[in-house]
Amino acid sequence: MRIALTGATGFIGGYMARGLSEDGHTIRMLCRPGRESALPQIAEDHREVHMGDLTDAASMAGFLKDVDLLLHLASAHDHFDEATMRAINIGGTENLLEEARRNAPDHLRFWVMSSAVIGAPVYSLYRDTKRIQEKIIRAERFEWATFRPTLVYGVGDYRHTAPLLRQCAAKRGRFLVPHDGLSKINPVHVEDVVDALKRFFDFERGVDCMYELAGPEGMTYNEFVDQTIAAAGGTIRRRNISRRWANWAIFFKGLFKDTTEDRRASAYFSLHHEHDITNARYELGWEPRTYAEGIGQVARESDWWKFESEGGKRLID
Questions:
Q1: Which partner for 48 in 28, 170, 207, 211 could form a disulfide, CB atoms 3.0-4.6 Å apart?
Q2: Phi, psi at residue 178, to the nearest 5°?
Q3: Which run of H or E residues covers position 111?
């Protein structure tokens, strides 16, 4: 099968490209000019590269010609400004759909990697742009499926997993957790995300489906931190900050600067973020690993997380 992939230069996209190429699929990867070195290394006979930018409709010409499946992973998260999130998450998806109408075969399937945060009861422009993305895809004639992973971790994640492991590897100090740390989350290993999607190839219904992808069960944020400290071999102590003191700190900070993001972050730690993976378990036979098992594997996979980036400066001994 020839699969068009956006987001191939990202953390999850790299795993997805390698996993699907190992199964014999040909992967046509979308790459922005200047990002060629970030493309995952896969077998040459399974590798195609299309140079283009999601926000530039003209550059997408031919990207979906003769492909069987579009796997849309590329997105702009909350660390981007609002204009960029709209341009990529909404505008980029509209450009892909327009290219599909022009050049894709009638049997094209459109699978999107969205985010479990879509269902979170805390405002986020990222969440809302991803909701719109899903809606405009569903309105089209193409067969679609959407996969919503929650907090994804794994080897090679230098933006989230590596900094967290380095912090938890400290031998002294405190790891401060807002509120009582009892709100629940469901981290999921990146290889389990790839496994779920690969299983979907063999699912008989296989169209117009939605799957939330998360850990096997919710864990408190305190457990999340404690298990990460254990995996990293640190002796740093976790300490909780009461909601009262957190709110007072935000109040005084608000006297001098905008605290919108602080208030949203505080609200995040007051809510449970568990996700129902029943249909992935039942329909796909999918069973993700526990966080304790997964983060232990990630931490023991050489000392990759002690560096700021692949091939970059070593930050801890």
A1: 28
A2: -60, 145
A3: strand 109-113
CB 258 within 8 A of CB 246: no
Range of the domain at 310: 154-187+215-274+290-317
HSE-CB for 29 with a 13 A CA cutoff:
29
Instruction: Please tell me which of 189-193, 215-219, 247-251, 271-275 the model is most confident about, judged by mean pLDDT.
Output: 189-193
Task: Decide which of 149, 166, 200 is a domain's last residue.
Answer: 149
Q: What CATH number should be reported for the domain holding residue 9?
A: 3.40.50.720
Instruction: DSSP letter for 44, please.
Output: G
The pLDDT of residue 262 is 73
Q: Give the whole-angstrom CA distance, residue 298 versus residue 231.
A: 9
Cα 158 to chain center, whole Å? Answer: 13
Q: What is the largest CA-CA distance in the chain?
A: 60
The secondary element (H helix, E strand) that includes residue 237 is: strand 237-241
Roughly how many angstroms between the first and final C-alpha of the chain, as a whole number?
A: 45
Locate the DSSP E strands across 89-235: 109-113, 143-149, 152-153, 174-178, 184-185, 188-189, 209-213, 219-220
Residue 220: φ, ψ to 5°: -70, 160
pLDDT tens-digit readout, 60-82: 999 999 999 999 999 888 778 88
Contact between residue 215 and residue 273 where contact means Cβ atoms under 8 Å apart: no
The predicted pLDDT at position 260 comes to 73
Token pair in block for residue 192 = 């389990």
pLDDT at 116: 63
Report the domain count for the chain: 2
Instruction: Check residue 148 and report its DSSP letter.
Output: E
